């Protein structure tokens, strides 16, 4: 019998900048809004729009509004960041609620079946950057049923590989996300499911602690389990069926 599915929610403390983690000048953030994000001349919603940053765009933080930490845009609390687009050196202001410290998921498609063929979570872990790791196994004298490889990532994230006697699962753990970021990351996975056209709203995990996607929903993997509690998000994928 394989061990029960276990999730470890890692926590960290923020000292007040950016709202999701301790963001520093010179760090990069990513646009996660489906419609892109306005880059404005000043830190105001009525300021001139210099350009629209496309979804997935990476920008560099030049300055952070550490005083007005309750700026309210369309009823949403957040902060203004002064950023620069590295591709054309245009500087401006963006609202941090629609940004993420983590890059978007990258789906590499197989043209023959339309499914993604890359190891989604492994690629995300490499994009975030690995810091250190450890490995545990209960195998002894040829017996045992579990091995774990744990990787601590940059930006308070973690990547874990679970090896059971009949299959492997891997998972990634994000910390200090707002509800919009959680919704966007989950919906980006759901969008890859051909038969499951469901999307979730921001409050989904307030009443649902887990979202399970089975192979029958044709998400190109055997199953996906997504968990969220507070500002944490865990995505676990089993790529192939067990015996």
Short précis:
With 243 residues, the protein is mainly β.
Index terms:
mainly beta; 16 strands
Identify low-pLDDT runs. 1-21
Whole-angstrom Rg: 19 Å
Number of strands: 16
Amino- and carboxy-terminal Cα gap: 12 Å
The SSE string, one letter per element, is EEEEEEEEEHEEEEHHEEE
Q: How would you describe the shape?
A: globular
Derived from helix and strand composition plus strand pairing, the structural class reads mainly beta
Protein model, in words:
This protein has 243 residues and is mainly beta. It contains three helices and 16 strands. It has helices at residues 120-128, 179-190, 204-207, and strands spanning 28-31, 37-40, 49-53, 58-64, 71-73, 76-78, 80-85, 90-95, 99-100, 130-137, 146-153, 158-164, 168-174, 210-214, 223-229, 232-238. The protein has a seven-stranded antiparallel β-sheet with strand order 10-11-12-13-16-15-14, covered by helices on one side. The chain is globular. The two termini are 12 Å apart. Residues 1-21 have low confidence and may be disordered.
What is the element layout, followed by pairings?
Layout: E1 28-31, E2 37-40, E3 49-53, E4 58-64, E5 71-73, E6 76-78, E7 80-85, E8 90-95, E9 99-100, H1 120-128, E10 130-137, E11 146-153, E12 158-164, E13 168-174, H2 179-190, H3 204-207, E14 210-214, E15 223-229, E16 232-238
Antiparallel strand pairs: 1-4, 1-9, 2-3, 4-7, 5-6, 7-8, 10-11, 11-12, 12-13, 13-16, 14-15, 15-16
């Amino acid at each position: 019998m394989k061990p029960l599915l276990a999730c470890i929610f890692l926590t960290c403390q923020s000292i007040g900048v950016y709202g999701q983690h301790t963001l520093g000048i010179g760090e990069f953030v990513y646009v996660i809004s489906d419609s892109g994000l306005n880059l404005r001349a000043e830190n105001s919603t009525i300021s001139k729009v210099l350009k629209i940053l496309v979804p997935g765009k990476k920008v560099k933080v030049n300055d952070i509004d550490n005083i007005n930490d309750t700026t309210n845009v369309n009823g949403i609390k957040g902060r203004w960041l002064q950023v620069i687009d590295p591709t054309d050196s245009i500087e401006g202001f963006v609202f941090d609620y629609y940004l993420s410290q983590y890059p978007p998921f990258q789906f590499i498609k197989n043209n023959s079946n339309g499914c993604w063929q890359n190891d989604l979570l492994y690629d995300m872990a490499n994009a975030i950057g690995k810091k250190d790791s450890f490995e545990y196994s209960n195998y002894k004298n040829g017996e045992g049923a579990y091995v774990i490889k744990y990787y601590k990532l940059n930006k308070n994230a973690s990547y874990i590989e679970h090896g059971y006697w009949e299959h492997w699962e891997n998972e990634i753990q994000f910390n200090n996300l707002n509800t919009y970021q959680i919704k966007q990351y989950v919906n980006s996975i759901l969008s890859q499911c051909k038969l499951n056209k469901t999307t979730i709203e921001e409050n989904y995990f307030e009443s649902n602690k887990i979202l399970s996607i089975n192979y029958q929903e044709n998400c190109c993997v055997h199953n996906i389990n997504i968990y969220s509690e507070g500002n944490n998000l865990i995505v676990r994928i089993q790529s192939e069926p067990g015996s």
